[in-house]
Structures are given as C-alpha cells and as structure tokens.
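hiii, so i know i said id send this last week but things got crazy w the move. better late than never?? heres the sequnce for the chain we talked about at the cafe, plus the structure i predicted for it. fair warning i was half asleep when i ran it
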Amino acid sequence: MTLPALRLVVSCLIVGLAACSASPSKHSPDIGGARATLAILESTDIHSNILSYDYYKLAEDDSLGFERTATLVREARKEYANTLLFDAGDTIQGTALADWQARGQHLPCDHELAMYKAMDVLGYDGGTIGNHEFNYGLSFLGQVTGQAMPIDGVIEPRCAGPKFPLVLANVLGAHDGKPLYPPTALLKRKLKAFDRSGRPVEAAVRIGIIGFAPPPIVLWDRNNLEGKVTTLGVVEAARRYAPALRAQGADIIVAISHGGIDTRAYSDSMENANWHLAREPDIDVLLLGHSHQVFPDPGNARSRYNGLPDVDNERGFIHGKPAVMGNMWGKSLGVIELALVQRDGHWQIDADATHSEVRHIRSADGITVAADPAIGHAVSAEHAATIAYVSTPIGDSDFAMTTWFTAVGDVSALQPLNHAQREYAQHFITENMPEMKSVPVLSAAAPFKAGYGGATDFTDIAAGPMAIRNAADLYLYPNTLSAVKTDGTGIKAWLEKSAAYFNRIDPSLADPQELVNRKTPSYNFDVIQGGIRYMIDLAKPVGDRIVDLRYEGKPIDPAQTFIVTTNNYRASGGGDFPGTGPEHVLFNAPDMNRDVLIDWISRRRHLTLAADGSDQAWRFAPMRTAGPVVFHSASGKQDMAHRVGLNNVQQLADDGNGMATYTIDLSGPR
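okay and structure toks below
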C-alpha cells in the first residue's frame, strides 16, 4: 500500500467510514474542459477592529477597520461571478470593545459577539481559530463561537455563535484527544463557468476547508490551556484529516492556517510552518495570517519573503500552491484569483492563470475606501457601551506617556507598567513565597505600538486625567502576569535578545543607516527596569551588544538570582528569549497585566514624571559616525523628545504620511 493510500485509510478510520465509503464523485462529467474563475477572499488578524475607531483616543481612524474591508469584499463580489470568503483567525480579541464584551460585562448565552455579528452581515463561508482567540479562556471561546466545549469534564452549553463553520484540526481536548472544533468542512457550491465552446454553464464544486492554529498556544496561554488541550503540528494534522476531505469528493482543499512562512527545519511545535504545509499533497490553497505581514508583496524590496526558496512573492505561490496573507486590523483583503479547469470529472487549479494579491483599504495615494454602513449599524449598541466603559476615570498624570521615542530611550509609556508589575510581584511573593522575598524583583515591558502600522500606531496619552482607555493603550493585550527566575547571566542574555531590535551600525559609512531592524517586532524590544543600568553598543553584532550592565550601581554579578516580572507570553517562551520557558517560570498570576496596571494607577492616583516616567535604564554606547543614523516616528514630535531629555534627536525630513525621518547623534550624552 502506498503512503498516500495508507494515510487515507487511517484518516477514514478517524473521521468515520461512512464519510469515505463512496468513491470520489464526478460532479459534472459532461463539461470536461470547462473553465471557471473562483475568487477566494481572506480576512485575517482583524483583532476585533470592527469599526474605524480608536477607543484609546476616542477618535475615528480610517486607516483600519473591518467596516472598510467589508467594502472591498462587496467590490470583489461585483467583480467576480464566483467568490468564497474566509477568515484566518485572531478575530475576537484586540480592542477595548472586545475586552468589554469578554471582561467588562456578562455576555448572555443567546447574544452573538459583536465581531461575529459584523461578519455575518457579509455572509462568511468559513474560518479558523487563531492564538488570540484563547486569551479569554476556553469557556468564553466556546460560548461566543457556539461550540459545545468540554471543560473540566463538563460540557458547556451551546450558545449563539457565528453563522459560518469554524474549523480547527490541530487543537485537541486533553481528556479525549478529539479536536475542539470540527477539523474540516466540505462546502458544496455552484460555479458559473464556461464550457469548451465558451457557452455559460453552471456546475457543482466541492471546496474542502481545514483549519490550523499555532501549536505554541499551549505555552502562550498556559494559564487557560494547561491540562485542557494539546496540539498537533500543522503537517501532522493535515496528514490526519485532509485525505478524508479528498475522499469525500473535495475538488480543492483550502488550508486556513493562522501562521506565517518559515523555511527553517520543521518541528511539530513550529509557529509559522506553512512553507512545510504547502508541500502536503492534499493541500491546494493556503490562507495565512498571524505574522501581520502582507503576502504576496510585489515591488517591496524590504519584504521578508523576497528570495525565499520556492516562494513566489510576485504572484503569491509557495511550492507551486497559491497562497495569500492579508494585513492586520481590517486594513486589507487577501484575494486569490483561482483559475479552474474541469478534468476527469473534477475541478483542478490552472496555476499558470492563477495569482494572489492583497487589496488595501487605503491606496498608495492616501485615498481610503468608504465604510460599509451596515457594519456600523450592526454593532452600534456595543460601540456606545464600549465608549462609556473606557471613559471610566482612574487617576491623573503630570506627564505625557508616548512611544514616539521608545526606540531611542524614552520610557514614559513603559515605566508605569514596570512599576505596576514589580509591585504586584513583590506583594505576591511576600504572601505566597516568603522564602523568595529577599530576591531582587525586576520588570520587563515592551512597546506594543511603535509605528509599525503608521503614524497612528503609537501610544499617545496626554498629561492630565487618566481613564481605563489610557491604561488599555499602555497595555493592549489580555495577557496575564507571570514571573521567571533567572540570574545575572540570564539578564544579560535577555537584554542581548532585546537589542536585536537594532541594526548594526558601521561608524565609517557616510550614507544614512537605519537604526531599527524592521524585521524585529517592537513587542520583542523589552526594557528591563528596577535598579538596572546598561548600554547598547551598536557597533557590535547581535548577541554581544550589552555593555556596562549594572545593578544598583555595581557591575551585575553573573551568579546573582533575580526575578523578572513579565507576561505569560514572554514567560512561556514567546519571542524565544533566553531564560524563559515553562522550566523557568516562578509563578503564573491569575490577573491580567492590564488589570494590574489599572489597579496600580487607581491606588496611586497621581503619577509624576520624576517618580513614574523618567527612569531611563539604558542608553547607546557613544559612537561617532561618518553619516547619519536615522529612524522613523510621528512627524513634528521633536520637542517631545527634548522634553524627556533626548536632546540628541532631530527631525530630518517629513515623510509626507504623518511620519518623519529623525536622526540621532550617538557621539555622546543625550
């Protein structure tokens, strides 16, 4: 028996013999040679940005929003006679509206989640579950997705969920080894096609869908998932479940995989394993996400997908299979124009006539498509309630908290969080681990909004009254607080990993050199505070940049024990930081980092720059450069840099899109 045949037999045994008892059906044997175009449309990483609205600023933001993606969907449906619409996950978490529905109120069982209400306006054909879907716990996830989910041996009631199927093949219940969601679904549709003579015909097509989440969810959301779920690698899950879809007569199998493209050696815990998934014979099309990157991205010389083996970044193929990954937050729509030809009674892909593209809500000339009014109408009540929720006052501050210049040393938006995390951990240790109370507690925080998404993608909290929305802007995600135990050597290794956020600078170059490595996300630029001082030497390679590392004014002792407070994502190994992972975790707290911050501000009431926003723990090692070292931030903010002591920063040029190019003089003190 061949390997594919063996896989088919095993798969049939898993999903049920009845599903595989019939030989593959020939849908339309009388239209051999017929052709059709099927547009597969994809949203991904919406992160509950339903409306073009910033709940942290209480202002419209037309650079994002599902209500504008909806317009692209409607336009594509006018353009193509045949369309299918799918979502690739990280859908229900990410905005204050999402947090209010999950934490700020009790969502009745018969009420549909606002995000899914909006999606149902468009009539999605299917979707999958991303890693952030698990952030609010399995009980909430089961409720809002309408999935009767066994938790702690109890079957939760089936509640109102989306009106389209959600599939997930690689997340299994720990108690029974069965998938939490149906691993696959078979969609039966009618195609408008043309026969060999060019006459219009209508023919049946069967589209199989299979879903995948990143396997590291069991580490990232350990508090919610430990002992409750296990994961399969995406390749193993595809081999287990996809052959049965083919046996049921699927012409085309679409993998909806919440992950990116990584060409490194495969493992079953791989976060972005879709380069390997594309090699599986029962996968025909890939809809990707998670990486917050556009694929394909033709014409972008800085695209991370340029030059990867067996990756076509012009037409959107991986190992000869069409693939697409739209951008985050409702900024775009992925489109695969799939050319189909009828052969041997089945629809097959004509790769030469197929291509993928990403369509953006904002064009290169700055024009943004209009919002679909039906989306705003569907969620108007939830929108109003969220505004009221985030406006609840909690304190005040005499300084602005911003991330415009976090990359060059400003800690105004990081220090409040680090203060809150340290105090929480110190109290927790005193109450629960008194034997550890003499160990120094440090705290690590990173900027979540540092300009990656453009001029509006910064934290910008003005001095004055503070509300819940301000704390939510300082900490975007519903992570829970965790702490790891390490030593002085581990602290240095942690900071070395963080310093990979910067490019290596050649002092002799006269041409401008970019300071920030755009391939490293800002959420991996951890700043550690709590008596720590250090310098980053940009002339040195990654891994050897941290110099003059001190604790309480003295060179750090490599053997001294430290506790670092962070979030569950980082503590469990997210970002691959040295000294993290389950074996290093000292404790996982039940409270979210954001709630810890809100409680801290509420108790402190009055924040000051001197006490809460000016502990600049690090600086660049002095270096004279022949040419300018440049970075990018919001335009017109030079005075704010000087206000926090960064006098070596100057605006060089306005980039014309709300952003500006700045220079930093590395030759001496700030």
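btw The CA atoms of residues 279 and 467 lie 50 Å apart. thought thatd interest u
miss u guys!!
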